[in-house]
Amino acid sequence: MGGLINREYSQKLYVQLYELLKGKIESGEWKVDTQIPTEEDLCKIYEISKATVRLAISEMVRQGYLRRQQGKGTFVCKRVIPEGLSMLTSFKELMLEAGVVFETKVLAQTVMMPTDEINLKLDVHDDAHVIYLKRLRLVDNEPVLLQETYIPHHVCPQLLSDDLEHNSLLELLEAKHNIKITKVKGYIGIAYLSADEASLLELREDSAALLIEQFYYSGETQIQYTRSIKQPERFRFFIELDRSQ
Amino acid sequence: MSQSKNVTDLMMDVFQFPHIPYWFSIKQAMGVTKKSLLTDEKCIRPLAILVFDEKYNLVGTLSLKDILKGLEPKFMKPTTKAQVPAQDEAGLSLLWDSLFDEKSKELSEKQISEVMVPAKVFVDPNDPIAKAAYLMIHNDLVLLPVLENKKKLVGVVRLVEIFDEISNIILKG
Prior knowledge:
The complex is a heterodimer. By secondary structure, chain A is an alpha+beta fold. Helix content of chain A is 24%, strand content 29%. The two termini of chain A are 39 Å apart. In chain A, 26% of the residues are buried. Mean pLDDT of chain A is 82; it is low at 80-89. Chain B has one domain (7-71, 108-172): Roll (CBS-domain), CATH 3.10.580. Chain B is built from seven helices and six strands. The termini of chain B are close together. The model of chain B has no long low-confidence stretch (mean pLDDT 82). The A-B interface holds A 107-113, 115-116, 126-127, 129, 132, 134, 153, 160 and B 15, 18-21, 24, 28, 31-32, 35-36, 39, 42, 52-56.
């Protein structure tokens, strides 16, 4: 079991351990609900420090591979998310029109404290720092979607310097920062536009628009809350229910 | 003065302080102050909030005094032109007392960009402590931003650390 961590590699030790343990779960060597070796055992097996083991385990818990049970140990989770799981969450997919070319304007990419119940929506303490992103999406130069996104700063501080005009937020989180989105809860409703929202979407103040609230999870941890307001005329939703499988 | 130490040795992590964007209202800033600064668990000093723009550039700081000043009705503020006797100023404050409920609530919707202290003075992490001390004293600052390459905010300097450093030298000398 040991001897697979290579100190000569440039890759950090905890990342190497993370990959090793993930491999054991994905290959079925560690079955669902089985208890994994203790931190002390992993230290001995891989000849690494406890801090390194803790980092790797925490990351696996956050990604939904493992769960900690107080006083009992750490276990393999039932829900292992396979690579490449697609979810209808990105702007491109929500447009539901093939070939639509859209442009993104980043109106804000900053940090704030979670006021006005954002702490409840994001499930963080009200004194936690939160990354705030405000993006306007345009199709054929017409504003069609206004998105406000809140992410706890500690989840991905690097997002503050990422290029969000030319990259999808989800792709950045998953591919660049290795934060796997495992679940998205969405609520669809109606919003009445504030003066600022109306001006950005080029609609009348207090007019009705489509509101989508999305709660993103990585493992058991909520990592993002997005409030999207859409021009109602530009969207239609597609739901497919298939009982054949 | 301490030749070996520079700003980077004294500066604090900016995330010790609450962050808000400049478009927040005074009312929102008051809420942040109560939840992030006036709690039993935290006793970070000075009681100040950092104010940022849309691109996460520091644009100002906000102290309790700045917030309260923002709630003051316009006619209460002394003008440079009028020669108002000192006793009249005290009398005016009684008027503010009666207006506190209505007028101040209205004023609390004002953007904090109108009441913050703009961040115009800053130091580099490699600057000597003496420079930070000079700038803080002469600009009456509660926090001094530390910018790397004149752009990236990497920390803040507080007067307490400056005082501590200088007093060590004086008392030991």
